[in-house]
């Protein structure tokens, strides 16, 4: 047995390298079942982040359906999702470069379906009766905001016809199993889909046009999610009308709750195509619910209301798909010790098959840190939530009396959530001797609507308080070094990071990945989907320009007194790069240690292997220079202004 080496926290040698992460892991993003054929979408950092549709046939053969240079990714709402749909062996998908829809079958080359025009498509459904797709279309051909509509696209000649229009946003068009009805979701500015949506239905006339459209459920203060028709034609959906996203059905004109409980059966609609439930039969539904931030898989009998938990090792479950004809269930899942995987489950026998794993890295469990669920006191006598990862490395121990530095992570969204699954970027840090607190601050999903609404009008305050209080809580318990508290986040998490550094004195350094520094600039410059998001998070703009200035770190650099590093994609249309550049120049002028790492060709989030690696290594290098410890491995240095010699 190898002798444990004593070394300072942060300097431990680990097999979980940035090279291993970008070389050995793909992103798993969606699934589909077509009889016994299995499909999934994977993002490959080694191919520049290209999204590839992969097919496994019933005999076990696996092949890519979308060859180079095709990239199956839509840009509707900029965040995309709902990139492809499958029917009878044919896949219809959106291609990133031109945003046209294409069709492809196994062994064939993709063929264009839609015209070369400035339209984007997402969330497709197949209307078998009329040989057409029904999809959300985002029209960028005019001036001003793009126009969102639900359209039908003829599978023969690609002709398009508008079916539903007039509102700001649409999602989830679903054709009934008999082809005679259509359901969809819609909402208007300033709401986001987790604030309030409406569920509509209509019949489909002989010419395929909607007739007799009516609102079934929802409104400005009720969020409806994932409408689906059961195999026998009963409309089901998820609603948070009670304060929790629960399952309902529409039967005989009445809305019936199916399994009332204080758990979340829905998710915020940041992207299209998300699915938390799927039909195994007309009366049996496989569903993923979230309790206290952890997913559980169950099978609901809609006649008895009984929800039987399915025994699995997974703490995160997404993209549930089923084929009621075969009883098959497919989903993406992960656990604290297993990387995400496409999983097929027989709900009758409980037999599980891993179809595709995000990475078969063979990491010894002795280098993995298991997350601990933590609840801690925060402002107003309330409780906030998170997952704590202590340092873990079987080969190393710290000098006696030393406490580890703590990295607090603030997730994006901010109406998102952090998940207790195997995150190699977290393990990259904990296996080197960092402790990590991944915070589900007030405003996060997974704890009910009341918790989610804590951030209403309070972005830059509640989230910051919760991150700071989580760090202080762990330091107060003697688990981490209160003098070496760090904070990092991406996108909205980057905003929380910068606010925490500008408006609190809790943290000694921070890292912003494509983060917001100027809330007013975000309100003025961002894309349609989020253009009124800040109305609810801060206040209407420009009427409350004073609040935007008050909450924008770029106007309060006098409050910053610690080192910061910025990572930014130069083609980011969600958070334009000038925000990071301006903040960097201000801190440089102030004389603080600061670094700026721009990435050509990257948008909102990094997809290319070399850039993911550079960000991982660069952040670690920055911390080593700030706190004065040596890294176990050589990494390419980052130029740190006001710290490095000219």
From TrEMBL:
Peptidase S9 prolyl oligopeptidase catalytic domain spans which residues?
421-628
Which InterPro entries does the UniProt entry name for this protein? 6-blade_b-propeller_TolB-like, AB_hydrolase_fold, Peptidase_S9_cat, WD40, Xaa-Pro_dipeptidyl-ppase/CocE
Highest taxon of the source?
Bacteria
Gene3D superfamilies cross-referenced by the UniProt entry: alpha/beta hydrolase, TolB, C-terminal domain
Query: What GO molecular function terms would the record report?
Result: serine-type peptidase activity
Which GO BP terms apply?
proteolysis
Protein name in the entry: Prolyl oligopeptidase family protein
Native organism: uncultured Rubrobacteraceae bacterium
Native organism taxonomy = Bacteria, Bacillati, Actinomycetota, Rubrobacteria, Rubrobacterales
